[in-house]
Write a structure and sequence with these properties.
The complex is a heterodimer. By secondary structure, chain A is of the alpha/beta class. Helices cover about 40% and strands about 20% of the residues of chain A. In chain A, the strands form 2 sheets. A 6-stranded mixed β-sheet of chain A has the order 6-7-8-3-9-10, sandwiched between helices. Chain A has a 4-stranded antiparallel β-sheet with strand order 2-1-4-5, with helices on one face. The longest helix of chain A has 20 residues. Chain B is an all-alpha fold. The interface between A and B is large, with 46 and 34 residues.
């Protein structure tokens, strides 16, 4: 079953065509990679799919619905999450808050209920000191768990679960910017997972990682696909990672799709080799 | 919450109330006015910090929102006789001339109207970012002032309103201050507050995490304007007379000074610096008058006390980039830890 499909999407910036007639089809549960030399238009394709750019031409279908031109936050709500090439965490906020915020879109309480949910314990605190046995009206009003408080408790539990999954639970109160590079990447993935996605888009997850971290990452991506029932679409330069985990690969060069197929086909495709290594002069 | 902290909280509120009670009875009217102003500037600072410090919107429209709140509250609390006397050039338009509402309701109406104006202004301007938003909101704030200067039959134009009942007293201003404080703290700690902070940290990432940027920015903007309106209403009914020229952009910059000094994104910092700046501006009044140092006589220069604050602001911006408190908040645990560590260090020093 195709979960994500693009139909001839094209992105033009003035006279420059960054991506031309890109056709993508991803089936549920697949891991698909998008590769290509620098400036090939990979991130532009990502930005079109996630709604950051509106494609100049073409249509994008996600889970049976046309999402062309829809705002990024609505696309995320529909079940697509992403990470960024240059990590974009909420730097000054704690690790836990980073994941907590990604749950905000599923919150049902409105702003008044949320504020009351936080004022109530302040008002109730004097009562806890002067403990009265009488269950007066005031006592009931102030000690009952509100809907918002229940939601917040559930979100906190879920955030803890996700942080445990990525091994960051001990660092949950640290500032996000104080984490090491590899951990920041993991936190970004955890944050994306917190939005409860069906499709996860990873923009160069292995960038700047050492060989050990890269191996861990490959394992980690496989693991989360199983655990969260995900479909994964990733951009990556690290060929070992790409060949290792992808079911299928798309290759872009100068905005055009020059090849698509399984890792073996791509490794033996002449146009791909030309795009990466150039043409031999005496050929 | 720890039991000790709860007791300390209750204790501090009781001390504050006792102090207000004492001040209300014994202080002269000048000191009471300064204390009132401090509380009002806390409200204004908190409301601006919500927009600028927590949500990261560089908005300079505060004077406009205050004007809306001040005029609404004043017009709704003035007696029909006072209105007839004030509007001697052209009479005030029909329903307004008879209405007189209790102070609290008028104050809330002022806040709501100010929030409504913010909602209308926000629709076009909140799509802008950074400096562009600052210029647009500054412009709108001036537009509000100019509209108020020209609507003779509603606001009495440049003549302004006089004999507004002096309803603002210490109880009202400090009551509203505590309410604002509790509301903003709760809001900031809630999921919505965290979403606001996420927008401040990184708009693109926030949007990708499913946060509706426009909706959340509007919410912060409207709530900030609501409290700015309440602050303006308290100010108008404290001073007893208002006119459009009071609400020039310099008023916005006074509030901005408070939140920058205190720390953008710190509630504790805003409260502290609102008191320091407001009381300081009064205390430094002697600088504006002729100073006799015995051997030399410095003639009075009006506005010299503002120079002190300009210098202070420069020092803060250069040496304490994030203001006095940065992003930090006061809490009892930190407070006691600080003293414990200090005494521990002393002990260690003595032992070695």
């Amino acid at each position: 079953m195709t979960i994500l499909k693009t139909d001839e999407i094209t992105m033009k910036f003035g006279g420059l065509t960054a991506v031309k007639e890109f056709n993508l089809g991803i089936n549920k549960g697949e891991i698909v990679a998008l590769i290509g030399p620098n400036g090939a238009g990979k991130t532009t394709a990502f930005n079109m799919i996630t709604g950051v750019y509106r494609p100049t031409e073409g249509k994008i279908k996600f889970d049976g619905e046309d999402i062309t031109g829809i705002k990024p936050h609505d696309i995320t709500k529909g079940g697509m999450a992403r990470t960024f090439q240059n990590i974009r965490l909420f730097k000054d906020l704690s690790v836990l808050d980073n994941v907590f915020i990604a749950n905000h879109l599923h919150l049902k309480s409105n702003i008044a209920e949320a504020t009351w949910g936080k004022i109530q314990p302040i008002l109730a605190s004097p009562l806890s000191v002067f403990k009265s046995e009488k269950s007066s009206f005031l006592n009931k009003l102030l000690s009952r768990e509100t809907n918002y408080q229940r939601e917040e408790r559930e979100v906190n539990e879920r955030a803890h679960m996700l942080l445990e999954k990525v091994g960051l639970v001990d660092l949950k109160d640290e500032k996000a910017s104080s984490l090491s590079y590899g951990l920041q990447r993991k936190l970004e993935i955890a944050r994306a997972l917190a939005t409860n996605p069906k499709v996860l888009l990873l923009d160069e997850p292995a960038a700047g990682m050492n060989p050990k971290e890269t191996n861990d990452l490959t394992e980690f991506i496989r693991e989360i696909r199983e655990d969260f029932d995900l479909t994964i679409f990733l951009i990556e330069h690290h060929m070992q990672v790409v060949m290792d985990i992808s079911d299928r690969i798309y290759v872009l060069d100068h905005g055009e799709t020059i090849a698509e197929g399984d890792p073996y086909d791509i490794q033996n495709n002449d146009r791909v080799i030309q795009a990466y290594l150039g043409v031999a002069e005496d050929a | 919450m720890k039991k000790r902290n709860v007791i300390l909280n209750i204790f501090s509120v009781i001390i504050l109330l006792l102090f207000i009670w004492y001040a209300d009875k014994n202080f002269d009217s000048y000191k009471i006015r300064v204390l009132n102003l401090c509380a009002i500037y806390v409200i204004l600072g908190l409301s601006m910090n919500l927009i600028n410090g927590f949500t990261g919107l560089f908005s300079l429209g505060h004077a406009g929102f205050m004007a809306v709140g001040a005029y609404t509250t004043a017009l709704l609390t003035m007696s029909p006789a006072a209105k007839a006397q004030t509007f001697f050039l052209e009479p005030i338009i029909s329903p307004l001339d008879k209405i007189t509402l209790p102070f609290f309701i008028a104050l809330i109406m002022g806040g709501i109207l100010s929030g409504l104006v913010a909602f209308l202004i926000g629709a076009p301007t909140l799509r802008l970012k950074g400096d562009y938003l600052a210029i647009a909101t500054l412009g709108f704030s001036e537009i509000i002032r100019i509209i108020f200067t020209n609507t003779q039959t509603i606001t009495n134009g440049p003549l302004g309103l006089k004999s507004i009942p002096n309803s603002t007293n210490l109880w009202w201003s400090y009551g509203m201050m505590l309410f604002t404080l509790a509301f903003i703290i709760a809001l900031i700690k809630s999921s919505y507050g965290k979403a606001f902070k996420a927008i401040r940290e990184d708009e693109i990432a926030a949007e990708s995490m499913g946060i509706n940027l426009f909706k959340h920015k509007s919410m912060a903007f409207v709530i900030g304007a609501f409290f700015a309106g309440i602050g303006g209403g308290l100010l108008g009914n404290l001073l007893g007379a208002i006119n459009p020229n009071m609400f020039r952009s310099i008023l916005t910059f006074n509030v901005l000074l408070i939140i920058v000094l205190g720390g953008m994104g710190s509630i504790t910092g805003t409260v502290l610096s609102a008191f320091v700046v407001t009381a300081g501006l009064e205390y430094l009044r002697f600088l504006d008058e002729t100073i006799n140092l015995g051997f030399i006589k410095i003639p009075g220069v009006a506005g010299l006390r503002m120079v002190v604050f300009s210098a202070l602001l420069m020092i803060v911006v250069i040496f304490f980039r994030n203001g006095l408190m940065g992003n930090n908040e006061f809490d009892w645990d930190k407070f006691f830890n600080f003293f414990q560590r200090k005494s521990l260090r002393k002990k260690e020093a003595q032992e070695s």
